[in-house]
């Protein structure tokens, strides 16, 4: 159970860190994840549930899927066009870094060269995901960013092979150059060949299953999610690089996805979205684990004497600084080699390339893979020092770019901000509501569609009370004038006139009630109303009428007792007015219960709607034109539609409602397209809006229309 608790703790830490990062954007998400890991490890009640993850499991369950997904995002043309650059970065630069850094550690720390080489191999591999966490919101030079991503995909294998050879050297005391070259060639080339073969085999297997109608969505998705794990394990079993095999298989799967984009679009979309979520989770878990691991490491550092603590921190920083210089001069050399003249921005690009060598997941996994005991059964004494230095190098590689890159690189100019997105949604919803009003459908269907379209805003419009009250008063004035003109022109029946007067009385009573509620406990009132609504769910129409009549009669009884105790005429008159209103309500409920009378009220309400419809529509258009914030227009449309349902018969129109909703969403897509053509919506904003609406259409089709 402890392992399960550990997983829950890690995932919870990732969730909290991601939410915090959304609120405090100045600090990268990965740093928050490390901080949450630190807090978990330092909290006694939580640290009991933390277990050490075996490095082999870590490489298989975390590193292999991450690199497989990175491969899926890379086109094979990119690899073929940059093959020389990849070899120089992932092999030549990595080996030069290991040899020079290893020599420095050997010379200054007096460690055996084999041990120094092991530490150098651990801290050399870079991590593109960790880089993304520190350059978020910055514009990286295109060539530099591509080089960093390609380097991080393939230099992991170089570091892992070098570490394996260094451990062999430590255990045996010798290592021949020919053996090193043979081992490296077999592991690296074998990983490439195995990745190609395994990736091709899995793709053909999936195609065969699809042709034979074995197209179960769950099974197909799980097959691809398991692919990097199976390929990694199989590659490691035969002695080749599982990391390179996973990357190559990912690249092959990218090509397969492009070919089957229209054949199995839904499956491809689902797999892509799943991989995005899984990779984000795994990256978060890695940094939380780094935070967890730092606690015992930092305890060891600060548990030493001050000069030793400062010494080990200095060593880690010097190793990191040495790698920065090597990467900087390599970038200058590469630029001079390619260009006859030194490019204008070469020094800046070289510095960005140098700082972009951020370390993360693989470095951490390799450090933990060091054996506790050597072949002669002696304790590997410097293991803790290597772990400590490696962890500090990771921290320096995250913190230094976080400080320097914003001072070197320009910030991304956001094509839109959250307020613009919010305003765009309001415009879309407002246009859709106007479109709904043009449809020849019942008021019940219109109200339901209005409510469902408004959910695109996620929240209710937070209207300004002063502005809203002014608009509502103007709406009432428009209706009153329209009805008065209709009465003068003898366009309304006696029932319609009577209903209009009652509706006006109801509005006045409601306004008085709202004013009175300011001096009451509103929370209690809301709870009481909620209880009433819940109770009505379980009552028949006849029982609802009886319940309301009994409730009004109980109120009348209380008011009559209060009236008898009243001491002055004004108070008795006020109470009698309340009793009269309640008696009218009882009369209205009992009359409405009668089918014939209810039909009369419905026709009367329709008459009122007919004589006010044109004036109300013109008023809404006027408000729409005068207000740039469409939220108040949306709220106004909602109020008008809800008021039309006072005495409507409820119908089961769910299926037809979905058909209408599909039509409205299609209208919204056209509206967004027009806005984009007009230049009012940027490309990124249009994509986000399109994705949301298309996803909604897919859900409706999945549920059924």
UniProtKB/TrEMBL annotation:
Chief location of this protein?
A: membrane
Q: Does the keyword Transport apply?
A: yes
| One GO cellular component term | plasma membrane
Q: Which residues form a coiled coil?
A: 542-569
The GO biological-process annotations, alphabetized, read as: regulation of intracellular pH; sodium ion import across plasma membrane
The protein's UniProt keywords, in alphabetical order, are: Cell membrane, Coiled coil, Ion transport, Membrane, Sodium, Sodium transport, Transmembrane, Transmembrane helix, Transport
Q: Where is the Cation/H+ exchanger transmembrane domain?
A: 12-404
Q: Does the record bear Repeat in its keywords?
A: no
Mode of membrane association = Multi-pass membrane protein
Where in or outside the cell it occurs: the entry states:
Cell membrane
A molecular function (GO) held by this record is: potassium:proton antiporter activity
Q: Pfam families of this UniProt entry? A: Na_H_Exchanger
User: What residues form the membrane-spanning segments?
Assistant: 31-51, 86-105, 111-132, 153-172, 184-205, 225-252, 277-298, 310-330, 350-374, 386-405
> Which InterPro entries does the annotation name?
Cation/H_exchanger_CPA1 (IPR018422), Cation/H_exchanger_TM (IPR006153)
Annotated Gene3D superfamilies: 6.10.140.1330
Q: What is this protein called?
A: NhaP-type Na+ H+ and K+ H+ antiporter
Q: Which organism is it from?
A: Liquorilactobacillus aquaticus DSM 21051
List the top taxonomic levels of the source.
Bacteria, Bacillati, Bacillota, Bacilli, Lactobacillales
């Amino acid at each position: 159970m402890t392992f399960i608790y550990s997983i829950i703790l890690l995932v919870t830490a990732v969730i909290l860190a991601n939410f915090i990062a959304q609120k405090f954007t100045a600090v990268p998400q990965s740093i928050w994840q490390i901080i949450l890991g630190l807090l978990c490890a330092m909290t006694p009640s939580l640290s009991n549930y933390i277990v050490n993850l075996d490095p082999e499991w870590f490489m298989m369950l975390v590193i292999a899927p991450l690199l497989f997904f990175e491969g899926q995002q890379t086109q094979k043309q990119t690899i073929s066009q940059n093959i020389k650059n990849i070899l120089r970065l992932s092999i030549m630069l990595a080996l030069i870094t290991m040899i020079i850094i290893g020599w420095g550690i050997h010379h200054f720390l007096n460690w055996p060269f084999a041990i120094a080489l092991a530490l150098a191999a651990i801290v050399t591999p870079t991590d593109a995901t960790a880089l993304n966490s520190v350059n978020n919101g910055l514009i990286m030079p295109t060539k530099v960013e591509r080089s960093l991503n390609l380097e991080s995909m393939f230099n992991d294998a170089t570091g892992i092979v070098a570490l394996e050879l260094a451990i062999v050297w430590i255990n045996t005391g010798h290592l021949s150059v020919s053996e090193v070259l043979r081992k490296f060639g077999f592991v690296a080339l074998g990983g490439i060949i195995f990745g190609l073969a395994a990736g091709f085999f899995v793709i053909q297997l999936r195609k065969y299953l699809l042709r034979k109608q074995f197209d179960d969505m769950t099974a197909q998705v799980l097959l691809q999610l398991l692919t990097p794990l199976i390929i990694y394990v199989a590659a490691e079993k035969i002695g080749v690089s599982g990391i390179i095999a996973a990357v190559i298989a990912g690249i092959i799967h990218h090509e397969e996805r492009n070919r089957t984009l229209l054949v199995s679009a839904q499956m491809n979309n689902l797999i892509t979205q799943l991989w995005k979520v899984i990779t984000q989770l795994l990256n978060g878990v890695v940094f939380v684990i780094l935070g967890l691991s730092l606690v015992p490491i930092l305890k060891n550092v600060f548990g030493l004497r001050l000069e030793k603590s400062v010494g080990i921190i200095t060593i880690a920083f010097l190793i990191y600084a040495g790698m920065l210089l090597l990467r900087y001069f390599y970038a200058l050399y590469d630029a001079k080699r390619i260009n006859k003249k030194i490019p204008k921005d070469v020094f800046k690009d070289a510095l960005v390339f140098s700082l972009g060598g951020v370390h993360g997941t693989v470095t951490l996994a390799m450090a933990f893979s060091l054996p506790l005991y050597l072949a002669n059964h002696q304790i590997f004494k410097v293991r803790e020092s290597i772990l400590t230095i490696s962890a500090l190098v990771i921290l320096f590689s995250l913190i230094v770019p976080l400080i320097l890159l914003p001072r070197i690189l320009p910030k991304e100019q956001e094509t839109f901000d959250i307020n613009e997105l919010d305003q765009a949604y309001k415009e879309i919803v407002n246009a859709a509501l106007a479109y709904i009003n043009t449809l020849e459908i019942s008021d019940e269907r219109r109200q339901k569609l209005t409510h469902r379209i408004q959910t695109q805003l996620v929240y209710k419009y937070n209207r300004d009370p002063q502005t809203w009250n002014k608009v509502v008063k103007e709406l009432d004035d428009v209706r009153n004038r329209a009805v008065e003109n209709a009465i003068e022109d003898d366009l309304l029946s006696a029932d319609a006139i009577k209903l209009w007067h009652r509706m006006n009385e109801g509005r006045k009573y409601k306004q008085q009630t709202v004013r009175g509620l300011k001096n009451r406990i509103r929370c209690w009132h809301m709870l009481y109303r909620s209880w009433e609504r819940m109770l009505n769910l379980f009552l028949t129409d006849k029982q609802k009428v009886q319940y309301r009549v009994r409730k009004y009669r109980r109120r009348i009884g209380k008011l009559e007792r209060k009236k008898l105790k009243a001491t002055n005429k004004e108070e008795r008159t006020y109470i009698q007015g309340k009793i009269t209103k309640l008696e009218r309500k009882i009369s209205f409920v009992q009359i409405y219960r009668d089918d014939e009378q209810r039909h009369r009220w419905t026709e009367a309400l329709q008459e009122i709607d007919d004589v006010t419809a044109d004036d109300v529509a013109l008023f809404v258009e006027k408000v729409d034109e005068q207000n740039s914030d469409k939220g108040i227009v949306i709220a106004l449309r909602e109020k008008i539609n809800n008021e039309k349902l006072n005495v409507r018969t409820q119908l089961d129109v769910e299926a037809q409602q979905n058909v209408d909703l599909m039509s409205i969403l299609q209208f919204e897509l056209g509206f967004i397209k027009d806005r984009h053509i007009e230049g009012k919506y940027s490309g990124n904003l249009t994509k986000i809006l399109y994705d949301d609406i298309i996803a909604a259409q897919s859900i409706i089709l999945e549920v059924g229309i």
